[in-house]
Amino acid sequence: MKPSDHDNEHLLHHFSDMDQQRESAKLGMWIFLITELLLFGGLFGFYTFYRAWNPDIFHNAHAALDVRAGTANTIVLILSSVTIALAVRSLQLDRRRRAGKFLLATVALAAVFMVIKYFEYSHKIHLGQLPGKYYHYTGIEGTNPHIFFSVYFTLTGLHGLHVLAGMGFIAWLAIRTFRNHFSAAYFTPVEMAGLYWHLVDMIWIYLFPLLYLVG
Amino acid sequence: MAHATAHKKPHVLPLKVYLRVGAALLVLTLVTVAVSFVHLGPYNLVVAMLIASLKATLVALFFMHLLYDSKLYFLVFASALGTIALFIVLTLFDTLRRGDIYEEVSRPITPDAVIYSDTARFDTAHGQALPEEGLMPLDTAGIVSPPLDTGEIGEQVDTSDIGRIRTGPGEGGR
Amino acid sequence: MSTMEGQSASKYAEPNYLSATRGLKSWLLTLDHKRIGLLYLISTTVAFVIGGIFALLIRLELLQPGGQFMTSDQYNQVFTLHGAVMIFLFIIPATPAILGNFFLPMQIGAKDVAFPRLNLASWYVYMFGALFALYSMHTGAADTGWTFYTPYSTETTTSVISMTLGVLILGFSSIFTGLNFIVTVHKLRAPGMTWFKTPLFVWAIYATAIIQVLATPVLAITLVLLMLERAFGIGIFDPKMGGDPVLFQHFFWFYSHPAVYIMILPAMGIISEVIPVFAHRRIFGYKAIAYSSLAIAFISFLVWGHHMFVSGQSELAAAMFSLLTFLVAIPSGIKVFNWTATMYKGSLTFEPPMLYALSFLFLFAIGGLTGVFLGVLAVDVHVHDTYFVVAHFHYVMVGGSVMGFLAGLHYWWPKMFGRMYSLFWATVALVVIFIGFNLTFFPQFILGVRGMPRRYFDYLPKYEDLNVLSSLGGFLLLIGFGMVIVYLVLSLARGRAAGANPWGAATLEWSVGSPPPPNNFEQTPEVRHGPYDFDVVKPKRTYP
Asked: Which of A39, C23, C76, C520 could pair with C217 in a Cys bridge, judged by C-beta atoms 3.0 to 4.6 Å apart?
């Protein structure tokens, strides 16, 4: 145990030092992340089983998605991943204001993602390309194209919820960063938010080609 | 014990690592979009998945620091991917091989969902609507499926859907 | 554990976790893993009583052929509630969240679990989910069976959504607990507590936690998809919408088969603790038992299709799942072999925890072996959805998990409360439970082989005799479990002081006073020997 850790106000009573506490938090976060991954895993299963049964429908229906919007969103999300990685790096170097700005940039990019998503969704709702029994679009050949849109809306919907949750969490962390709550000695919550955000990005990296490009 | 080790300085990566990885991710995004316009048949999916996996690996190794952190995190992450793979692959052993012996258990049970039928009324509360055409009760071993009964829901488990197979002509017109 | 001699009797006078702070608020906002364990003990006991009442209603209804006092619809709701309450509200949380919470940190020499606030949150999430699931009784309880099979669950007018939402919320509670335990075992072991010095209960809870974390999210997404199917007709499970009902079974059993091991693995861990202590002998095959826990956790993900042999899944998948199912017998057999070998030439004493452990061995062997029968494709087609299956899983779940849980509860009760229950009445209750259990469920094996289908409201007159026996056994079980609750509660007021180490065990939790102090250990213990080194530690019994 390092004597300096006794003075650290962030050390909880049941840990013996800050290293142990930080590593515990990080392992806990990774386990949380894999539960998120498995949650999406079920939906990827939904996609895989129905695509294997009806490859033609998926191929025909995926053309209804807007590749430009999907590409734009991929770029936006990758950029936001870079900014939050840089926010963590800035805190490692104790550059607190810069870290706060990077976090705000991440929130802004996430907002851009959601705006693009909003336009995509409203366009589909307008056309009647809705999931399940609300589907009433007639422009797609083949059997049961509504299932493709069920897959599309459940996958992107769950992903969108994660983006929204991440936005709220990161915005709160940005405020705390500007209030000097974090420093090179303690920035675990920001690091955790970074891991979460990279996972959200990673899931989108798979969603984008599966839904928009190959269908 | 892990916590008894000496204090480790947090590993600070040079700025250019993040920028280069970010640039690589953007380039790969454009590559995968470009390839999708080239018609490669089933290989479109393969190429798209390879590129996506490459991108995900970059994110995991550099942005999520898996390359530099404890191997334990890598193990945790890999266990989740393995579990998803197990789920999907073992289920595909079922879904892709149905009807190998008995054709009537192969999918689809109904070729078209009820929403595409003009005559069928769809109502979740009394979800009894089924397109009558092209369907007839499965008559195996003298057991005839009960006729559709729209009353007394919940009285008995409604297995009428399972007991029916498609016998009508042709594939999926609507 | 070298500190064991240092923990003298004078320690008992110091504040323990029960008396350190007072008032309702100090309990409802506690971050102490021991108190959270007790909160779980109270709430899961209530759930057990509720689930038990439903079970008795089923047995009363089946006392004679024909309707007795329920309609067939009510019967469907009652067996659904019995299954859902017992599985999601009682067995899954019981051992990990009560005994695991209480003793996992103590056994590895930690002051608490890694995330105490998450631990408390998991209890609140549990309560919220439980209330949600039980609220559905008021709005017309689900009548789908606890498995929620489609297409019926997408069509019935009962409140499937609020029931599944309750189960979904309970799943998060289970994930929180599992996450907490994995991190605790990895990061909070005391100095000197290497992996192979951790007690086998810790290994079992660790393996359980892995399953909880990896499988439960899939249940969550399954239930979300089921709700979406009901609300939007998304076409994944409902054949009317182009969906595939068998796919629901894949999704559901991918969680629910591993969940069976969430229920049984902790019980196996308890047996591994109890048997060496009461055989006064080092456990035989420590590493084999530890690794077999992990092996069971792994294999549990490979066998779910054996619930679906008659569902219309592909013949290839059925054959494959049947073969994989037999693999489970290997690690389970390793465990039973090693427990038996531990007792061989040991000096056995037969106090209640040991008697429960022996009952576990006997009943679990029957439950496990009939499971191998059911894994055989041809046999399963014959007895599928009959009372044979009901008997099989009650032998595993009650004969295995509940007996194991009771073994653990009787083993650790004096540590939790510092007082000993009546050993006499505990033995009497055990005999009643053992006889009642076999009387209830053994006839069901015979009924199943003779063709009585499960989940039916009525039966042919030729099944009457065995059903009467079964119902009679059910009421013996009521008496037995009632006695357990009564003497355990009475022991809190009247029990004799148990002392720090009433059974003469060598694991860390017995080295501190009973009840333990708020932070478990005055100083972080230094571990120098294994958990079953009785010949090195020479622990002294403090009771009687």
From this structure: A39
Q: Could you please report the per-residue DSSP string of A160-194?
A: HHHHHHHHHHHHHHHHHHHTT--BTTB-HHHHHHH
pLDDT digits (tens, 9 = 90+) for C508-537: 999 999 899 999 998 888 898 889 998 888
Domain that holds residue C60: 29-537
**Mean pLDDT across chain C, nearest whole number?**
92
Cis (ω within 30 of 0) for the bond into B137? no
pLDDT tens track for C1-36: 334 433 444 444 568 899 888 889 999 999 999 999
Q: For chain B, which chains pass the contact test of at least 3 CB pairs under 8 Å?
A: A, C
Cβ atoms of residues C52 and C479 within 8 Å: no
User: Which of A78, A90, A137 best probes binding to B when mutated, by most B CB atoms within 10 angstroms?
Assistant: A78
The answer to whether C350 and C275 have CB atoms below 8 angstroms apart is: no
pLDDT, residue B107, reads 63
Q: Chain B neighbours among C 127-146 (CB < 8 Å)?
A: 143
What gap in Å lies between CA B143 and CA A20, rounded to an integer?
Answer: 66
Pairwise pLDDT comparison (B132 vs C104), residue with the higher score = C104
How high does pLDDT run on average in chain B? 71
Q: Residue B144 pLDDT more than 60?
A: no
**Count of the separate structural domains present in chain C:** 1
Of C152, C192, C246, the CB nearest to B158: C152
Q: Which of C123-127, C134-138, C473-477 has the lowest mean pLDDT?
A: C134-138
User: In angstroms, rounded to a whole number, what is the distance separating the alpha carbons of residues A61 and C383?
Assistant: 44
Neighbouring CB atoms inside 10 A of B132's CB total 11
Q: How confident is the model at residue A171 (pLDDT cuts 50, 70, 90)?
A: very high
CA distance A85 to B65: 10
User: CATH fold of A18-214, please?
Assistant: Four Helix Bundle (Hemerythrin (Met), subunit A) (1.20.120)
Burial-class residue B50 by CB neighbours within 10 Å (0-12, 13-18, 19+): middle
* Contacts of C331 by beta carbon, 8 Å cutoff, 6+ apart: C291, C292, C293, C295, C296, C299
Whether A105 and A174 have beta carbons less than 8 Å apart is answered as no
**Judged by CB atoms within 8 Å, which residues 150-189 of A form the interface with B?**
184
Shortest distance, CA B71 to any CA of chain A (angstroms) = 11
Residue B146, min C-alpha distance to chain A (Å): 26
Please report the ipTM that was assigned to this predicted complex. 0.94
C-alpha C152/C-alpha C157 separation (Å) is 10
What's C155's domain CATH number? 1.20.210.10
Q: Where are the domains positioned within chain A? A: 18-214
Which residues in chain A have Cβ-Cβ distances shorter than 8 Å to C234? 131-132, 146-147, 150, 154
Length of chain C in terms of residues written: 544
Residues in chain A within 8 Å Cβ distance of B70:
23
Residue B122 pLDDT exceeds 90: no
Q: Band of the pLDDT at B115, cuts 50, 70, 90?
A: confident
Q: Which stretch of A144-153, C204-213, C435-444 has the lowest confidence by average pLDDT?
A: A144-153
